[in-house]
Amino acid sequence: CAQCVGASMGTAQLKIPSAKAESRSSSVGGGSAGGGGGQRCVVVVEYQHGGTLKTLLYKHRDKKLPYKKVVQLALDMARGLSYLHGEKIVHRDGKAENMLLDRKKTLKIADFGVARVEAGADGDDMTGQTGTIGYMAPEVLQGRAYDHKCDVYSFGVLLWETYCCAMAYPNYSLADISYHVVKLVDRHISP
Question: Of 20-24, 29-33, 166-170, which gets the smallest average pLDDT?
């Protein structure tokens, strides 16, 4: 699309350029970015009244979630990831802020900004450090080739956070998190 407008959670008063404003900018010589005659692309996401998983976990930091609720949230995440992986989509940024809850506290996976279709059999297409430190698998942090299993690693971190109602690395520097994940975790995981 020629012009894309997006919004993240918490964005208030999102302003989408009007056709009148756009025609003024194109008559001044700016034109639209893609030259597509003023086309706009807007990403619309269903509003989830329950907020994020991170907010829910923070609210329960002193009194943990009931075990049955932890299991329900874990199953919701697992079903969502299973669906994505069945469609060959790798999310690549699974974290508590990207897990939204509806009114019934059913979890839905959100924010596909860095998601992509899974690479071929060799896996060489996906490399580089994409995602959020603390949820990134060792192979991602090391810049090695990876596949949908990086989402499974993030899922494991999210399971721990959901059960404990705490963030996995609350007071660690980015360097410390990377060290702990790459040097300590990678030793215990065999491919």
Answer: 29-33
